[in-house]
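ESCALATION

Customer reports they have been waiting on this structure for their group meeting. Please prioritize. Original submission:
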Amino acid sequence: MNTAAEQEKPFLIVGSGTETVAPGLHILRGQGQSFVAETDVGLVVVDAGPGGPVTQGMIEAVRALSDAPLHALCYSHGHVGYNAGVPMWLAHAAQRGDAPPRVIAHRNVPRRYARYRETEALQHRMAEIQFNRPAGFFDRRLAMHAPTETFDDRLQIGHGERRIELRWAPSETDDALALWSPAQRVLYGGAALIDSIPNIGTPFRTMRDTVRWADTLEALAALGARKAVREFGATLEGEEQVRHVLMHTARALRWLRAEVVRLMNEGFNERETLARIRFPDELFGVEWMKPTYGDPGYIVRDIYRSENGWWDRNPTSLHPAPPEDIGRAVADAITDKRGVIAQARALARDGHWQLALHVIDLLATASGEATEIAEARSLKAEWLRQRALQVPSYVSRNLYRVSADMIEQGTQSRFGIQ
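Update from on-call: job pushed to the front of the queue and completed.
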């Protein structure tokens, strides 16, 4: 079981305070690294934060920088936790007697919010599992606040040397933006620019366009930025380094697309493609491509799904029986259940946790409390935690560990976990 302290440990919160990267341009730490630009028309803040003490700390940090009115709040992208704190910024402006700030997002954000409202229970449940949080944790943290205006490709704020540009930067979402200071050649990359492999193919989320993300990185590289601020990670310094990281990442994404297409064209299904692909170290061994959150295998699956339907190429799965009936029938067909458990245990003893999981699933997915079935479920939970120790991806580790908790609690069926 995960302790309360582990459940409450923040992952996306990166600290507090500000860091000046150029005159009038500052990193604002909160949920990820937000950004503040001091323009001639007032302050422009990218991302309001998740609300509560984090957003309050962000407001105080901004006020330590400047007493200028807040001209605009901008959404870096449409994942709602990043801007749950909008009401606090609006209240702050009102308390100061300032005019309400503009609340700006890309035009795709309202459509995303409509989808999130329609699937609210699903979104909360997925977030609880992905971030290893207790039931109900996100009910008050995923509030959605509609922007007051949207833009398509580019929006300028301010004039002259202090102007900034908001640029559409589709990447993790189709509504992401980047902030560009032409005079100082400083780029805030938002969700398009992080210090690990691009977050494509996350198990619980809809597909993300690998090639479009590469297009975005190449377009940002063409700006010729001298500094590039990431949503997560250290600032890239120097025009050569900025261009190198952006173009290298784009090249890796294009390689993935080409390689998956090659394997698909040779007739391999999704699992066969995953088994055969090898990730070149010169592309994926660099520091900023490490799989700390996403994983290159996730990207492979997203590319595969973008060109294929849901069928796994096994005719048995075209019109399947209910999962509980399948589990029962398979378990009933196994006359030597102790032999299955013994074989799975042998694999586990040798450290072959993934193979042990495949074998134990012959029994662990069945319903009922027969001795061997209950033992299989207990072993599966134990081995899921061992498997979690083998993978670098934060998301994968959480899915293994939360699934183990649910199996032990008997709540997995409510979440569709097997």
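Sent to customer with the following note: The longest strand covers residues 32-39.
Escalation resolved.
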